[in-house]
Write a structure and sequence with these properties.
Strand order of the largest sheet: 1-2-16-15-14-13
Radius of gyration: 21 Å
Distance between the termini: 64 Å
Low-confidence stretches: 1-14, 21-62
Structural class: mainly beta
Largest sheet: 6 strands, antiparallel
Mean pLDDT: 90
Oligomer: single chain
């Protein structure tokens, strides 16, 4: 397998870490495909604390007016600290405060990413925006933020293996990272893709990659493509879904390596579950198979970056229910934390008490917030949310690094990520309850019942909390210790995504349509 032919295997904390040889990086049979806009940076030096702070800064309003990745910032905290003037109410039927609405495919699960006047969102091909491309595909669409015009779309064929690796009609669930004229995302084919933000609209085939199947003016222009299935033997269960994270010259991602169609066998437990990839070349810098034989189902979370007591680290929620922290440069394991009780047991179909992790960790200073969950098809079950102290953490810190725990009957399984602002933590569970907790103690202030399942995450924008649900309702509440509903609006279809705001415009994707919502002035 190519992984072992090109990598040095090291044992760290009981897991295999794959490190690319220096010589292999320079000579890889033409697979080294440099993104021109990213040249001239030190691959081995991820951005430090200053980089994380830049994204969260309120001081540089111009730089802040973008939401360039899933969660908007490397901390993955679902809080927008710069948006103002965002509407609290709108109406789809009458068009009140609807700036524009753009058709997507028939199913859409990824959050919009927005920068430099472009909005990117994943979906499937049922919208038939290019009539020459038919059939089930995975699409990333690029829209003009000004008027919702489709500028171009990247289209990816389905894998021949079928639903075990590439579930029908799910499209692309990954939210792209936008940086320096390119985007990075995970395709439905388990590929890490680096693409030009202009697609073929500029009339040029940028970068060394020249094997694009679709090359019209409204198609995607790829700079490089890393095929994790064929290159590393990754076996994505149902679908590869991760939204990548870029820090310095590295792209961090979870590969979605998982179980076979029998939901028991793990075809390749030695394949990497976590990867760090050179953003200029698309070559693996290091990878870890940390969950190994412990993978319970699939691995559909995202990586987080932070600095605890001066120690940079990248966090990967594992498919075994553990949270892993690694050194960003070389993949050395720093610490790990089991988010399940020691007596918990995994049972097929969600019948057990042990969970894996689909939520993404939020890291603010020394503290990490993360909850457990399962595939929504497994239904409801007991959940666990933890605040973890990463200050000086080393090895197995389960128990001793726990600051507080919230769970049991009061909090169910979740696939949502937390929003932490002004001493309050908001998180929703799959059962449809939005919880407002004290950030320091985990004690609840209030719980709001959405009356429908929730797949997206609560987000704090302009002093308000926004959350969508499976019935298509988006609720807006006041950000505060007392629960106050401002409005609730139906979007005419399920909302499995999280609202995003840039330049006073609120963007919400339901299953079939992307809405831009703006306060209209009389």
């Amino acid at each position: 397998m190519l992984l072992f032919a090109a990598a040095l295997v090291a044992i760290a904390g009981g897991c295999e870490v794959f490190l690319l040889h220096e010589s292999d990086s320079a000579d890889s049979e033409g697979k080294s495909k440099e993104a021109p806009a990213a040249a001239g940076k030190d691959v081995k030096t991820p951005a430090g604390e200053a980089s994380a702070k830049k994204t969260d800064s309120k001081k540089d309003a111009k730089a802040a007016q973008s939401w360039p990745m899933w969660g908007g910032q490397t901390s993955r905290n679902m809080v927008n600290s710069f948006a103002t003037g965002v509407p609290s109410s709108w109406d789809v039927a009458s068009g009140k405060n609807i700036k524009w609405a753009a058709p997507l495919g028939s199913q859409s699960y990824g959050n919009p990413s927005i920068a430099d006047g472009r909005v990117f969102v994943g979906t499937n091909n049922e919208g038939k925006r290019n009539p020459d491309i038919v059939g089930d595909k995975g699409n990333i669409m690029c829209f003009s933020a000004a008027d919702g015009e489709l500028l171009w779309q990247a289209v990816h064929d389905k894998l021949s293996q079928g639903r075990v690796n590439d579930w029908p009609e799910q499209g692309i669930c990954s939210s792209p990272v936008i940086e320096d004229g390119v985007i990075y995302y995970i395709s439905n084919r388990c590929e890490l893709v680096c693409a030009d933000v202009d697609g073929f609209l500029d009339g040029k085939n940028d970068g060394p990659y020249k094997d694009e199947k679709y090359t019209s003016k409204i198609d995607g222009d790829f700079i490089w493509v890393l095929d994790m299935l064929n290159e590393f033997g990754v076996f994505p269960h149902n679908l590869a879904t991760c939204s990548p994270l870029v820090v310095g010259d590295l792209v961090f991602l979870i590969t979605s390596n998982g179980v076979e169609r029998d939901h028991i066998a793990i075809p390749n437990p030695r394949a990497p579950s976590f990867l760090a990839v050179n953003k200029k070349t698309g070559e693996m810098e290091w990878g870890s198979n940390a969950p190994g034989d412990g993978i319970l189902h699939g691995q559909w979370s995202c990586a987080t970056y932070g600095v605890a007591n001066g120690v940079p680290q990248v966090l990967f929620p594992g498919g075994d229910g553990w949270l892993y922290s690694f050194k960003p440069n070389d993949g050395d394991l720093l610490w790990k934390f089991d988010l399940n009780p020691k007596d918990s047991k995994w049972e097929l179909g969600g019948l057990g008490t042990r969970n894996n992790i689909i939520s993404t960790a939020v890291m603010l200073g020394d503290l990490v917030y993360l909850a457990v969950g399962q595939d929504p098809e497994h239904g409801e079950g007991i959940g666990h949310l933890y605040a973890i102290d990463a200050n000086g953490a080393a090895g197995d810190i389960t128990g001793k690094a726990k600051v507080w725990h919230y769970g049991g009957e009061e909090f169910k399984r979740t696939i949502s990520t937390a929003a932490v602002a002004d001493g309050l933590l908001y998180i929703s569970d799959l059962s449809g309850f939005l919880h407002c907790l004290d950030e320091k103690t985990g004690k609840p202030y209030w719980v709001y019942d959405m009356l429908a399942a929730v797949w997206g995450s609560p987000t704090v924008i302009d002093g308000k909390v926004f959350l969508g649900d499976e019935d298509g309702d988006v609720v807006v509440l006041e950000h505060g210790k007392k629960m106050k509903v401002i409005s609730e609006t139906n979007m005419d279809n399920s909302v499995y995504t999280t609202p995003v705001a840039v330049d006073g415009v609120l963007y919400i994707a339901n299953r079939t349509t992307l809405f831009a919502i703006e306060e209209k002035k009389n």
